[in-house]
Specification:
The protein has 574 residues and is α/β, with parallel strands linked by helices. The chain has 14 helices and 21 strands. The structure holds flavin-adenine dinucleotide.
Length: 574
């Protein structure tokens, strides 16, 4: 029987330790609150879990001294398939035991969902780009103003920390094309007009000894600073300790800071399956705890807390709400946005590159995965984005809404020569030109629609309950903006001198930037507390009101999570 005066296991339980969960835990720990974090996936880089993919290991860790960069580097080994295979890779959405199947999601259309379980969540393989939202996508649209977010952006930028990306050959070529195409340089973090700029990235500055031949590569990778290894996606390993790893995933930035407070303990391998609630005479329905399942043993446990924060990501937070039987709300799971990506690449002749860069290649495998961008508020972003060969081939020639280029070639007058999947001799030729190819990711200002949603399947269940079903069909307005971005990106490539331009026409449901399935103003109030369940807060991408105009979403989640922690501390623990 619920008794508000009785003891609780913690002040706050946080569900999920990814982009948002790690932040809220650190902020609340610093405020002096006792925080327990339940994370569904494994913990890489902690002495309690020496062999996290094959043995259950410990239960909890709340000690900064448990962090172990040796274990981290053994697992983050940079082999493309070992790291990224969505079925059995390190960065999959599934249990720690990689011999078992990933957790099921039903997709109602062509596409793929790129999310990772584990401490750090999907930031384990994010590219660390940390721009702010477009003010025009917030002011007069969100229930809070852009100005309200600014101090929290500043705090997150200082904590991560965020700095402008260095220029490697691909960025130099991008700037050359962007300037020739007429885009002005933007010198602000608050983007209100179109232009180009270096990316603000949560990646430590480049190691100052990188070009000094006295330092062997291995030594450099054990020192502080980015080694420009082009490996953000496959898992960054540059750094002397877990908290000094160059790419600032939540695992290496906020989680160590949370542990340092002495107030935060994290339990990996623990899938939350139900939010526990009770009727309080004063508050009405309120959260009082969480039921979770140990992913190794299958045992179900319960923990209680004065407040609960959901940060399980845009698919699992609504799933958990629905599977917990919380009050009906027509907007739970609704309004999914995704930046409706596309991918455009250009192949360059050696001579052209020698003239512009003084070198014969773009070296797509060097530098931050993405170091420069063109911003077009109202339409979106195109940003230079190059990766290791397997991933780049997959995104450039292997994955398309348009099908095969040979069967469905571009219309006359279109600015690309190839659209869709390439095969046979054409594919071989393109792949041989990998080192002279510059590719760009396009992020669309995606219209927020009620029909785009996460729901749970009425019949299909896995060990954690009814499985999520994802529906996403972009609006004509979103598709028009995406097409405009593809044309702008192609023009920049043409101005830079590309000889062949490829538009992948990426499947619309290629999901990396999921947002807005538990929208502020519909599911939560402006403190990010659920309207219908007191003391239940949301601190992941799902609480965004929209897709923030196209910029990469995580910094906005981190800023909001910082603010939410402050609101929780003031409202319930003053
Ligand atoms: C390849 C790639 C590149 C990206 N690059 C960028 C970038 O450069 N910049 C940017 O801003 N964004 C980027 N993103 C997006 C970024 O990763 C997300 O915006 C961010 O991780 C979202 O944070 P979140 O807290 O909403 O979810 P997540 O980070 O996914 O965290 C959710 C966590 O909750 C856990 N969880 C889920 N369900 C449960 C449950 N029931 N119980 C317990 N735990 C649970 C999960 O295991 C996970 O650890 C990228 C994404 C991908 C895939």
């Amino acid at each position: 029987m619920y008794n508000a005066e009785a003891g609780f296991d913690a002040d706050v339980i946080v569900i999920g330790s990814g982009g948002g969960g790690g932040v809220v835990a650190k902020e609340l720990g610093e405020a002096g609150l006792k925080v327990l974090v339940l994370e569904a996936g494994p913990w890489y880089g902690n002495k309690q879990w020496q062999h996290p993919n094959s043995e259950r290991g410990g239960e909890w860790s709340g000690d900064y001294n448990d962090l172990d960069v040796g274990i981290y580097k053994r697992i983050y080994n940079a082999y493309e398939n070992n790291m990224n295979d969505v079925v059995s890779g390190v960065f999959r959405f599934g249990p720690a035991d990689r011999r078992r199947t990933p957790w099921n999601r039903v997709m109602r259309q062509k596409g793929a969902i790129w999310q990772a379980s584990g401490v750090g969540g999907t930031t384990q393989h994010y590219w660390a780009q940390s721009p702010r939202a477009y003010p025009a996508a917030v002011d007069g649209i969100w229930p809070i103003s852009y100005q309200e977010l600014v101090p929290y952006y500043e705090k997150a930028e200082a904590t991560l920390p965020v700095q402008f990306a260095p220029t490697t050959p691909k960025e130099e070529l991008f700037y050359y094309g962007a300037q020739k195409a007429g885009w002005p340089l933007l010198k602000t973090l608050d983007i209100t007009t179109p232009g180009y700029r270096p990316n603000p990235n949560a990646i430590l500055p480049t190691n100052e000894h990188l070009m000094d031949p006295r330092y062997p590569l291995e030594q450099l990778s054990n020192m502080e600073g980015c080694t420009l290894k082009g490996n953000c996606f496959n898992g960054c390993t540059a750094g002397p300790s877990v908290d000094k790893i160059a790419k600032r995933s939540t695992l290496v930035s906020y989680v160590p800071l949370a542990l340092k407070t002495g107030n935060v303990a994290i339990r990996p391998n623990s899938f939350a399956i139900k939010i526990l609630t009770a009727q309080d005479p004063k508050e009405g329905l309120r959260a009082i705890g969480v039921q979770f399942r140990d992913t190794w043993t299958g045992e179900v446990g319960e923990l209680t807390a004065r407040t609960v924060v959901m940060a399980a990501g845009c698919i699992e937070s609504p799933r958990l709400w629905l599977n917990s039987g919380l009050p009906q709300n027509a907007w739970v799971g609704r309004g999914l946005t995704n930046h409706c990506f596309d991918w455009v690449a250009g192949v360059f002749d050696e001579k052209v590159l020698l003239n512009i860069l003084g070198s014969p290649a773009v070296y797509p495998y060097v530098g931050h995965t993405s170091g420069a961008r063109v911003e077009i508020p109202g339409t979106g972003i195109f940003q230079v984005s190059c990766m290791s060969p397997g991933l780049m081939s997959y995104l450039t020639y292997g994955f398309s809404e348009a099908g095969y280029d040979a069967l469905n070639p571009p219309q006359p007058g279109e600015p690309w020569q190839i659209r869709g999947r390439a095969i046979g001799p054409q594919l071989k030729e393109l792949m041989m030109n990998y080192s002279r190819t510059m590719s760009m990711l396009l992020l669309t200002d995606d219209e927020t629609l009620y029909r785009n949603r996460v729901e749970v399947d009425p019949l299909l269940k896995d060990e954690n309950g009814p499985v999520p079903v994802i529906h996403y069909t972009p609006s004509p307005k979103t598709l028009k903006r995406r097409d405009q971005l593809a044309r702008h990106a192609s023009e920049t490539l043409r101005q830079a001198g590309a000889t062949t331009i490829i538009r992948s026409d990426t499947p619309f449901s290629f999901m990396l930037h999921l947002e807005s399935t538990m929208r502020m103003g519909y599911v939560t109030d402006t403190n990010c507390e659920a309207y219908q369940v007191k003391r239940l807060f949301i601190a992941d991408n799902s609480v965004h009101f929209n897709g923030i105009g196209g910029p990469n979403p995580t910094l906005t989640t981190q800023a909001l999570a910082t603010r939410t922690a402050e609101k929780i501390a003031v409202k319930y623990f003053a």
